[in-house]
Design brief:
By secondary structure, this protein is mainly β. It has helices at 106-109, 139-143; strands at 10-24, 27-35, 47-49, 54-61, 70-71, 86-92, 97-102, 114-119, 125-134, 158-161, 177-180, 185-191, 197-201, 206-211, 221-222, 224-227, 232-237, 243-249, 265-271. The longest helix is centred in the middle third of the chain and has 5 residues, at 139-143. Bound molecules: copper (II) ion (CU). Copper (II) ion (CU) binds next to loops. Copper (II) ion binds next to loops.
């Protein structure tokens, strides 16, 4: 008898680090992100790796400042990538689930240089929600390295998913969940911001498959759950009915960016 095994392979990818300024919901802010090709993409590129595969990634620093490429539990921060330099990493992941890559420099991660790696769930439709918050008036000082932590007076007005606000997020095919009744939909969620968020689903409950920090919530079947700072969570949604339902941060201050309803809201569009 023959048995067919899927041999592990290597995913090869390249990300660039850039800085840019943008006005989102009326708020001007400095950003740094990891993105593909040599175009600046507002969202940090999400990466999916099949279960058991490894990742061979090249990071090219187009920014004027030094960065690193950090993945908690996988890759330590001690790998400076100087301005104009290129670094290569070959990485393997011990378990399926959601991971976060980021630049550990304050002028990197506090300005959203932080993205999602999802390992596994190869045969399902996958979506990515990268939560972020920031106070627009702090970003100039952070960008120049004049402050390197969030002050106690933190008063964010910028709340986004994939660096996009509602309703703009509806045109982001990675963040706007589209599926059918009975589908198994996987959503990878990280909190790249500076405060805890609490996601509330209308219409459905989701099963929490993986949570790296708040891991007592694994196995919960809930419509609301915490996403603390630096968290990485994977949830499974199997819609039992058709409809269009919002998902938003339950802290209502964060659904006002650009006017209500705005900010940290996305949507589930489920067809029969
Ligand atoms: Cu609600």
């Amino acid at each position: 008898m023959w048995s067919l095994n899927v041999l592990p392979s290597t995913l090869i990818d390249t990300l660039y680090i850039s800085n840019y300024v943008d006005t989102i919901g009326g708020y001007f802010a400095h950003y740094r992100t990891f993105h593909r090709i040599d175009t600046i993409d507002k969202a940090n590129t999400e990466i999916h790796i099949n279960e058991n595969d490894s990742l061979q990634i090249t990071i090219i620093n187009l920014d004027s400042l030094t960065h690193d490429f950090t993945i908690d539990g996988v890759l330590d921060s001690n790998n400076n990538i100087y301005s104009g330099d290129t670094a290569n990493f070959t990485l393997s992941f011990s378990s399926i689930g959601s991971y976060r890559y980021y630049s550990s420099y304050a002028y990197g991660k506090l300005l959203s240089a932080s993205g999602i790696i999802l390992v596994g769930y190869d045969n399902y439709k996958k979506f990515y929600w990268n939560l972020f918050d920031q106070q627009s008036t702090l970003t100039d000082s952070i960008a120049h390295g004049w402050i390197d932590s969030i002050p106690p007076s933190y008063h964010p007005e910028l709340f986004s998913i994939n660096n996009s606000i509602y309703p703009d997020i509806l045109s982001d095919s990675t963040g706007h969940v589209v599926g059918n009744v009975g589908d198994t939909l996987i959503i990878a969620i990280i909190n790249s911001g500076n405060m805890a968020h609490s996601l509330h689903f209308h219409g459905y409950h989701v099963k929490i498959l993986d949570a790296k920090i708040n891991n007592h919530i694994v196995g919960w079947d809930k419509d609301t759950f915490p996403v603390v700072m630096n968290e990485r969570i994977t949830v499974m949604l199997i819609p039992d009915k058709e409809g269009m339902y919002p998902v938003h941060d339950h802290n209502l201050i964060s659904v006002n960016t650009g006017g209500y309803p705005g900010g940290m809201i996305t949507s589930l569009m489920i067809s029969p």
